[in-house]
Amino acid sequence: MPSSLPPVRLYVMGAGWRTEQEWPPARTDWQTWYFGPGGTLSRELPEAGSAEYVHDPHDPVPTIGGAILMAGGPDGGLSWQPGQRDQRPLDGRTDILRFTSPALTEDVEVTGPLTVVLHASTSAADTDFTAKLVDVHPDGRALNVADGVVRARYRSGMDSPGPVVPGEVHEYVIDVGATSLVFRAGHRIRVDIASSNFPCFDRNSGSGKPAGAVTEADFVSATQRVFFGPPHPSAIRLPVIPSPAGRNQ
After folding, report:
1. In sequence order, which residues have a C-beta less than 8 Å from that of residue 40 and are 6 or more positions away?
2. Are the C-beta atoms of 186 and 211 separated by less than 8 Å?
3. Strand 170-183 with 108-122, pairing
4. Looking at residue 143, which CATH number applies to its domain?
5. Residue 157, domain extent
6. Which end of the chain is more exposed for a tag (fewer CB within 10 A), N or C?
7. This prediction's pTM
8. Out of 25-29, 36-40, 114-118, 213-217, which region has the weakest mean confidence (pLDDT)?
9. Is residue 241 part of a domain?
10. Phi and psi (nearest 5°) for 172?
């Protein structure tokens, strides 16, 4: 490869191809967007509070789009097709918490790795927490951007499994992958928190048993509580690229 080529070439969804000298770009403005009461998402730290949902592994949140290699779906529809898909078919579910920003007053480019820091408790012996970044359009369409999952007992890493104490608040760091996308003015940034995204991610039985030893008879419903504000500020960390910042097109 010729040494004159920039080390990074990326496609910014909504803006086209661009080159960079490093990854993530050195000019990145790492912004913390906090979850808040009433499903708010804001750069302002909210008052302390929490929100609750019940996860039933018998009825997991179905996968709609994303980085998957499946097609079709149980209903023959688009539910298992990869890529960006409208998430509105999930709107009626009560086992998803949604945290949504106000409509953006200007374009916001998000380019780089995404991380959710979740402060949460569970009633189960083990559980999963999933996070999904969503681009909500003015017409109501809600398109997935990236998603990730953490298994509670592996919150300190795969090499350091630890027990989950029911009812105790733990910090969970969820790797939501990386993206490069311009959220347009008038759109809203949303983060969906749940405990399943099936079959993209295997269901957690909630029993604490090893995955290979579990049957549906072991499935346990779990009451999940997500905390926000001090001292448990759940949030997403967004890599925002200042505009125009002399972008190298």
Report:
1. 46, 99, 100, 101
2. no
3. antiparallel
4. 2.60.120.260
5. 52-99+121-226
6. N
7. 0.92
8. 213-217
9. no
10. -120, 125
